[in-house]
Design brief:
Low-confidence stretches: 1-29
Number of strands: 13
């Protein structure tokens, strides 16, 4: 069948300005050539010298070699002293260099099917509670529809019951279910025994009972008495990476140790039952979840580990009052406790991210990107060239995978734009938000599990984890894959349904 012919063009050729494809292609190859030259510049510079040296060596005769040996015999003492000094310096370097930290494996808790909570169930439950005005019920409906969450997220029984029954007992029950579920799976995957754990770090921002969550883990698994135990509270959604950084520092001073890191949030006692809209948003975003991560500094574990920790960069903007107050747990006028999110949150997060990547950039970016960034900075600051736009480094040259905290759709949209990432790079974060919701500090591990389930993580790949938290903080961790990761059913929360993803989640602006 032939295509129908149009009698007249729909758009006038004179009004349609097509891009200059020849120039764009030329610019693309110029950029590729520049990056290649800067990346391999040292090799290209040394190659002629190596050729000259090889040519010079090839002209050596047997007599020249005898003469060289005679000279070395006369300088035997110098050779021995130099060799001794070299061995001494090498030994000092080997003893004092930082111990490598390996991520042996991790597990993400997947709640039971009975705890699934769709968007319709959320709205029905909100109406049955009877605590919200009609205007705020409509407000929550709009937030939920635009949040990026799907219909298969999870909430604890204390919230889904009619009426809800939040209590300390129920909160402990949720914490035990999440923590023990993730830890049991992790021990099964790694074959590590509880008595082998030398360091324990647990983070949960809003639920801090006595005895602590870390004490609950020690009691349940009968961990050894000299364990280094820490319980982090009130540090927001970026506390997971703070826990990783703390465990890394502890592993530097405790040789041949395993560190168990547990990241989670507790929903039961932190559901808001008031009508302050700045606090209602958290009800629409936060869901049940948690992760357990096993770290090791044993060199024998390198072969079986998935990743090696390369960098951990932390940024804290708490000295600024605006940053400090943008996420606050407080009471409303009726005495209901909730987490208030400021309208300035996005601006504060952007500023914190800028500070964080300014520190991280020189550690991970290729020299080509660093030179472009430096040249732009000099032009704007030193020569007052205001017409020159700030250069945004291409972090895709430094990382193959991005795990951005799934705090909400607006956050992901903004970071995708600012970091100039593709839909493929953002897919793990968007699908985690859709499938599991905002699971606070553990969301980064659901995202990494997604990339593993898709079979995307290859040996040598670099992963950038970025998280934001109250205070205000922006933290980053950089990992390098030690092997190609192949996820299997039973040890990955995505494997039973990974073929259904990605799904289409339209991008819309936040309310």
């Amino acid at each position: 069948m032939t295509e129908p012919r149009l009698k007249a063009p729909l758009i006038s050729p004179s009004s349609l300005k097509l891009p200059d494809y020849k120039n764009s292609v030329k610019l693309k190859y110029v950029k590729l050539g520049y990056h290649y030259l800067m990346t391999h510049g040292m090799f290209l510079f040394l190659s002629p010298l190596v050729v000259l040296f090889a040519a010079q060596i090839s002209t050596f005769s047997l007599q020249d070699l005898y003469d060289l040996w005679d000279n070395l015999q006369y300088n035997l003492i110098s050779v021995v002293l130099c060799s001794t000094l070299l061995v001494f310096v090498s030994t000092i370097y080997y003893v004092t260099r930082p111990r490598p930290v390996y991520l042996v494996d991790f597990s993400c808790y997947k709640p039971d099917e009975a705890q699934r909570f769709s968007k319709k169930m959320f709205m029905d439950q909100s109406r049955l509670i009877g605590a919200f005005t009609e205007e705020n019920l409509e407000f929550q409906r709009k937030i939920v529809e635009r949040s990026g969450l799907g219909d298969s997220t999870y909430l604890p029984e204390a919230i889904t019951n009619v009426p809800p029954n939040p209590s300390m007992k129920e909160a402990r029950k949720e914490a035990e279910t999440v923590m023990y579920g993730a830890i049991d799976e992790l021990f099964a995957k790694t074959s590590v025994k509880p008595k082998d754990i030398g360091i324990l770090v647990v983070n949960c921002s809003l639920f801090n009972p006595t005895p602590s969550l870390s004490a609950m883990v020690i009691n349940h698994y009968k961990l050894r008495g000299n364990i280094e135990s820490y319980n982090l509270g009130g540090m927001g959604c970026s506390a997971g990476l703070i826990s990783i950084d703390l465990a890394q520092k502890l592993l530097q001073v405790h040789p041949n140790s395993y560190a168990l890191v547990i990241s989670m949030e507790n929903i039961t006692l932190n559901w808001y039952f008031g009508n302050d809209r700045s606090k209602l948003v958290s009800n629409c975003l936060f869901r049940m979840g948690g992760a357990a991560i096993l770290l090791s500094n044993k060199r024998s574990d390198r072969r079986r580990s998935k990743y090696q920790l390369v960098h951990a960069v932390r940024t804290h903007k708490g000295a600024d009052d605006k940053c400090f107050a943008c996420v606050t747990q407080e009471e409303d006028s009726d005495g209901n406790i909730g987490v208030s999110l400021s309208k300035e949150l996005m601006a504060v997060a952007g500023d914190a991210l800028k500070t964080n990547i300014t520190t991280l950039g020189p550690l991970v970016l290729p020299m080509s990107e660093q030179l472009l960034f430096f040249a732009t900075l000099v032009g704007r600051k030193l020569f007052k060239m205001k017409n020159v736009k700030p250069y945004i480094p291409n972090f895709k040259l430094a990382f193959e995978h991005f795990c951005i905290h799934a705090g909400g759709r607006a956050v992901l949209d903004e970071l995708e734009k600012n970091l100039q990432l593709s839909d493929w790079h953002m897919e793990p974060s968007r699908m985690t938000l859709y499938r599991f919701g905002n699971t606070s500090s553990s969301s980064l591990w659901y995202e990494l599990a997604y990339s593993e389930a898709k079979g995307r993580v290859k040996k040598g790949d670099r992963i950038w984890q970025i998280a934001f938290g109250s205070g205000f903080k922006c933290n980053s961790s950089v990992w390098k894959a030690l092997r190609t990761v192949r996820a299997t059913k039973g040890n990955n929360p995505w494997m039973d349904e990974i073929d259904q993803f990605p799904v289409d989640v339209p991008k819309v602006s936040a309310i």
